[in-house]
């Protein structure tokens, strides 16, 4: 079985499952970028714990962790099974790396997990293991989680980080209230941040990426809090030594809210 890449997905809001938008169509075609995986390990920005936690639930239910959206979304189900045996292997690899993982026996799929997977693998017949972020840990720590699990890619297991390349909800709400735009100066700050990441990825400048808080432009405008960017470092680490990121999707909502996604080879 060929080694799979790892992925970073900007998952958007739950409405991405319904709305006619480029990011949705990209996710619907995601399976064309990778061979069908034996299983999926996904780190969602909406699963926060102290340290890293691995879900061993054999049959995760649904978490509708959002409000004010179409009623149809609250009836959707993604019935992919969990995979306790794989979860235990993940735990063993994390322990070997000195990361002291915890187990969680029951946890449903939050929208950072089920919405992109429902679009990419709609049959829900591929087992899924969820792992958490720690919002109090930095990029290097999350990168280390990916590095610890990188060998699983050689077994046909797909490692996905699900977050967002930019995540300033205050700006999104402000844009919606003002007719769908932000002031040009603020929009330029979003552009500069996204372009910086794309440039460093293209140059495979891992050290700059891991020091993003100190080196990237306009950090506070793009990520008032860090949690939605941590999955990209997991995916980067999962590429292993010498891995590099290729931006495979770049679209905007309201002209500024970026949906960049990366494949790491």
UniProtKB/TrEMBL annotation:
The keyword Oxidoreductase applies. Residues 36-252 form the Extradiol ring-cleavage dioxygenase class III enzyme subunit B domain. Its cofactor is Zn(2+). The keyword Oxidoreductase applies. It comes from the Bacteria. Belongs to the DODA-type extradiol aromatic ring-opening dioxygenase family. This is Dioxygenase. It comes from Aquibium carbonis. The lineage of its organism: Bacteria, Pseudomonadati, Pseudomonadota, Alphaproteobacteria, Hyphomicrobiales.
